[in-house]
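haha ok so turns out i had the wrong file open the whole time. this is the CORRECT one, sorry everyone. sequence first:
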Amino acid sequence: MEPQLNFMTIVTMIMLSNPQEDLTKIPCGQCHTPTGWRPLLAVTRFNHEKTNFPLLDKHKFADCIQCHTGSTNEELHQFSNAESNCQSCHMDIHFGFLGTSCENCHNSQSWEMSNWRKATDHFAFPLEGMHAQIECTDCHGLGANQISGALTNDCFSCHMKDYNQALATGTHSENSNCILCHNTRGWTPADMSHHDLFFPIFTGKHRGEWSSCEAECHVNPSDYTDFSCGLNGVCHEHRKSKMDDEHDDERGYVYESQSCYQCHPQGEERD
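then structure:
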């Protein structure tokens, strides 16, 4: 009478005819137990530190099959096919608008945005000065529902309340171009550090040649786009008689501030 083959014997014979090494070079005992293929060892013996994706923090507690997916034994054991980018395992709730570098804001300890201040490439709006201290929700709303496409880098969009409060004092001009007088270090004290972007007063010939905004140039404090180039006796260098003589060979010359600026945008005689 021929011996009867039980189930485990059959499985063993199949395994011997198609050894595990055909699926992976990793020894079976690194992940499996002698009692069965499932469940896997509670703590696998495989050293994931030797791979390109060390298991740190919360990743230590993930099930293998959460990353190493497949519908067949062959697919499940193609370990090198596992993607290392976040999007392969985690749904992108930002729908691609914030890029693929999740580590700029998140880390493997938590999805909480504790790491966001290290995001130096904050798109078209670098977080400098006081902006580096605010919460994401102040600009992006709860759940970051306002993303890059819905925001503007214009100061007024966020600071309209500050502007209206200053306007109510009667000492602030009706000009919402905040960058003219403010910077990211704080609203006060106001300064003109950005003025050279429009017209150099801290460099070049006009450096040290003025006392205050209103005295020589911005004679209309309610509108800083209305300016004077020191005409009509305010600046001795720009007396009308002198300017007329110096420009007698200039076609279209007009003794008027806007005309001066069009020809001398950098305040230099030879512009």
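Residues 88-150 form one domain.
again sry for the mixup
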